[in-house]
From TrEMBL, chain A:
Residues 6-28 form the Proteasome alpha-type subunits domain. CDD domains: proteasome_alpha_type_1. This is Proteasome subunit alpha type. One of its GO terms (cellular component) is proteasome core complex, alpha-subunit complex. Pfam families: Proteasome (PF00227), Proteasome_A_N (PF10584). Belongs to the peptidase T1A family. It comes from Eremomyces bilateralis CBS 781.70.
From TrEMBL, chain B:
It comes from Eremomyces bilateralis CBS 781.70. It comes from the Eukaryota. This is Proteasome subunit beta. The keyword Ion transport does not apply. The keyword Membrane does not apply. Signal peptide: none annotated. It is found in: Cytoplasm; Nucleus. Belongs to the peptidase T1B family. SUPFAM superfamilies: N-terminal nucleophile aminohydrolases (Ntn hydrolases) (SSF56235). GO terms for cellular component: cytoplasm; nucleus; proteasome core complex, beta-subunit complex.
Length: 250, 268
């Protein structure tokens, strides 16, 4: 029933020095659908592939706006992402109320990292089963942070987490030198291309399953979903693809 | 050690009698500050073209006694904000501690991209004023106010001059020229003559503003019995803070006093 005796809780080391519960939480992130984040010198972009449980159901939310200057994309347990994003919203609001300024991104990223790490170190608790990409613009410019259930937080130029995300990261590594000076439109194009590379063969990006979050250049964080992403898909992959044209009676 | 005097006793109660505890507070409710004890008087400040000038004298009074004559009531927070404290000095010292820990926290969280240790500008004057207004309002809501009137002078996030006040009730107010305490009555009209509104302050030169503030400090020394001719003055501009803490009022003329009966030393 159990893989071994050392994965019952998050406070027990295996003889090899591993903490299996934390590793399983990392696996939960890899089961989630893929999300991509990229930053340029001026902008930060999140792109995500949404999944629906069945044909007729709605799609699971993947990009969550937190404050006007940043948002997160999630891979893994959506309910854990809800807890973390509520916490981030609360902290961001508190920062605005007490100091009248937007939350610093490295600050909030490290704060949820701290929270997640504590969950791996106390008996009776469990690690979060979600990975986040935290992306936005603060007084030091655009930022992208990768958060893992282990509590690890890293600042990235571009990264991807979730199922088959290695394919997306390969694309990002190949095109890394173009990101810094890219325009907003080019950055979105790169994010969608990276996202597309990670798809399995029977899938494609459509207006229904694609979410894009953009912030930078003086604009506030904006989440694009549904018909709003169709021009982005069109410019990334050419007309026709990605967008299912509506059938009309003639 | 038991710090409550009524428990101290005497070495020979049979000789000296028991400790007289009648002046000590009898059992009763815990009391908060009902009035300030050691106080600083006016703080005077004024915006100009590309910065703010703020001044306060170096006196801390114990009632009408000029008790401490080298108390620095201007506090530089970072390269873009200076605070001026009027009112209770011990509450000022409490706020000073609070601001020191805030500043430490800020510098650990975000040392700034420049890598320069002195560039701790992650909190600008506006942020600091917002924070202080919350602290002051919290304390008055607890019926335990910090008995101060504070001027926050500096630059906002767009490097524009910023000047605002917060008092013991948490009331905030902003104007091109501000003063606390006695100065609110005496200095403000003098400063407003130099720059009546924001538009005038935006064209005012630094020298004119500094001179106007010095003039106001002088008039305050003439007419405010709780003031001193030793003062501190700070100028906050984009290129940093210039703080002088040991200035002396210049060009005093007490000729007017001789004609006023009951004013100053009367020989006849």
């Amino acid at each position: 029933m159990f893989r071994n005796n050392y994965d019952n809780d998050s406070v027990t080391f295996s003889p090899q020095g591993r903490i299996f519960q934390v590793e399983y939480a990392g696996e939960a992130v890899k089961q989630g659908s893929v999300v991509v984040g990229i930053v340029s010198k001026t902008h930060a972009v999140l792109a995500a592939l949404k999944r629906n449980a069945e044909e007729l159901s709605s799609y699971q939310k993947k990009v969550i706006p937190i404050d006007t200057h940043y948002g997160v994309a999630l891979a893994g347990l959506a309910s854990d992402a809800r807890v973390l994003s509520n916490f981030m919203r609360q902290e961001s609001l508190r920062e605005r109320l007490t100091y009248g300024r937007p939350m610093n991104l490295s600050e909030i990223a490290n704060r949820i990292g701290e929270r997640a790490q504590i969950n791996t170190q106390q008996y009776g608790r469990r690690p979060y089963g979600v990975g986040l990409l935290i992306s936005g613009v603060d007084r030091n410019g655009p930022h992208l942070f990768e958060f893992q259930p282990s509590g690890m937080v890293n600042e990235m130029l571009a990264t991807s987490i979730g199922a088959r995300s290695q394919m997306a990261r390969t694309y990002l590594e190949k095109n890394l030198d173009q990101f810094a000076d890219a325009t907003k439109e080019e950055l979105i194009k790169h994010a969608l291309s990276a996202l597309k590379d990670s798809l399995s063969q029977d899938k494609e990006l459509t207006v229904d399953n694609t979410s894009v979050g953009v912030v930078g250049g003086g604009d506030l964080f904006k989440l694009y979903e549904g018909q709003e992403v169709s021009p982005m898909l069109a410019s990334a992959f050419g007309e026709g693809e990605g967008e299912e044209s509506m059938e009309v009676d003639t | 050690m038991n710090h409550l005097p009524q428990a101290w006793g005497r070495p020979r109660d049979d000789v000296y009698g028991a400790y007289n505890a009648s002046f000590l507070p009898q059992d009763g409710p815990k009391q908060h500050t009902q009035s300030p004890i050691v106080t600083g008087t006016s703080v005077v400040a004024m915006k100009f073209k590309d910065g703010v000038v703020v001044a306060a004298d170096n006196l801390a009074s114990y009632g009408s006694l000029a008790r401490f004559t080298d108390v620095k009531r201007l506090r530089q927070f970072n390269t873009r904000a200076v605070l001026g404290f009027g009112g209770d000095v011990s509450d000022m010292q409490h706020l000073d501690r609070l601001l020191t820990s805030l500043s430490l926290r800020e510098n650990y969280a975000d040392p700034g991209s420049s890598g320069d240790e002195t560039d701790t500008a992650s909190l600008d004057a506006k942020n600091l004023h917002t924070y202080l207004s919350k602290v002051m309002y919290k304390r008055r809501t607890d019926f335990n106010p910090l008995w101060n009137h504070i001027l926050v002078a500096g630059l906002d996030d767009a490097d524009k001059p910023f000047l605002a006040s917060v008092d013991l009730l948490g009331t905030t107010f902003s104007a091109p020229s501000l003063a606390t305490g006695f100065g609110a009555h005496l200095a403000v009209p003098i400063l407003r003559r130099v720059a009546p509104d924001e538009a005038a302050a935006e064209t005012l030169s630094m020298d004119d503003a500094v001179n106007a503030v010095k003039e106001a400090m002088k008039v305050l020394f003439y007419r405010d019995a709780r003031s001193l001719d030793k003062y501190s003055i700070a100028v906050i501009r984009k290129d940093g803070v210039q703080l002088k803490e040991d200035e002396k009022l210049e060009g005093q003329s007490w000729a007017f006093a001789e004609t006023i009966r009951g004013y100053g030393t009367q020989i006849h």
